[in-house]
Amino acid sequence: MDFFPSALDNLIDKFATLPGIGRKTAQRLAFFVMSLPDEEAISFADAITEAKNSIEYCAICLNLTDGEICVVCRDTGRDAGIVCVVPDSKGVLAIERSHEYKGRYHVLHGVISPMNSIGPDDIRIKELMARVSDGDVDEVIMATNPDTEGETTARYISRLLQPFGVKVTRLAYGIPVGGSLEFVDDATLMRALEGRLEM
Amino acid sequence: MDFFPSALDNLIDKFATLPGIGRKTAQRLAFFVMSLPDEEAISFADAITEAKNSIEYCAICLNLTDGEICVVCRDTGRDAGIVCVVPDSKGVLAIERSHEYKGRYHVLHGVISPMNSIGPDDIRIKELMARVSDGDVDEVIMATNPDTEGETTARYISRLLQPFGVKVTRLAYGIPVGGSLEFVDDATLMRALEGRLEM
Question: What is the ipTM of this complex?
Answer without folding.
Answer: 0.73
